Structure prediction request, 306 residues.
Amino acid sequence: ADGGSAAEGGPKPLDELVVGFAQVGAESGWRTANTKDIQAAFEEAGIELKFSDAQQKQENQIKAIRSYIQQQVDVIAFSPVVETGWDAVLNEAKAAGIPVVLTDRAVDSKDESLYVSFLGSDFVLEGEKAGQWVLDEYADTTEPVEIIQLEGTTGAAPAIDRAEGFAEVIAENPNLEVVASQTGDFTRAGGKQVTEALLKSNPGVDLIYAHNDDMGLGAIEAIEAAGLVPGEDIKIVTVDAVKDGMQALADGKINFIVECSPLLGAQLIEIITQVNDGETPEKRIVTEETTFTQEQAIEALPDRQY
Ligand code: GYE
Prediction:
């Protein structure tokens, strides 16, 4: 088959399929929910899952992928920690005839034959939605609005794209100014540490835009420690909508959350099944997502799965 389909000898029974999944790490509530959902989906489908946690290090992910190639798994799926630097290992998978599925995060490779499908969110759109809320919130302001941006992992698709979408939209109002932008590596501890430092150098800050809930939750701790009221003295906008984030939004400590769904397991199984059957999955599958205000968070919280 062209580019190595799992269906070379015809489809395998699902209980004979083996899939290797190279996860980013366990950096956030989003990631934990994503891992749980993927493991549960494999369990339910009766497909064997080899799972590895790269602790947010690209070299670990590359090692894991190489070991899956060596073990001749049927499909490799992974969520690339950063966008660049994948061509070599993906070419090795291709040469071995093992199809690769990208979940959650993209690679910036020009060679689209290196993966069969990319399943995940539109991160630029998420950044735009966050920017739109800020634009509306400060529509009537004639004063400068000072914004701190807490970036995700440097070089990661969601960090690059969420910054881009946000910047594009807030550019419509010259009063909205990002006065500082630093990475908190998508972690709570990172968000807290960066906010602590940036509050000192930017005492007039009005709003924090965090690329995920966890960094926003870390920022809340730093703001409270500085004797200020999160959500009031300093507004907070985040991305993800995991339970802890939604609770903070319901409590008024976060002002707005753009949803990013970690529930990719069922769709990943569908892609793997299609590959096994010799079908060609959609090259790009975009997750459907919404946004939450405080009232909407209060309403959604009781039924929130993660
Ligand atoms: O937003 C963040 C996680 O890649 C979409 O990674 C994912 C991001 C998510 O650490 O919380």
Q: What stands out?
A: The chain is about 40% helix and 20% strand. Residues 29-45 form the longest helix (17 residues). The radius of gyration is 20 Å. The first strand starts at residue 18 and ends at 23.
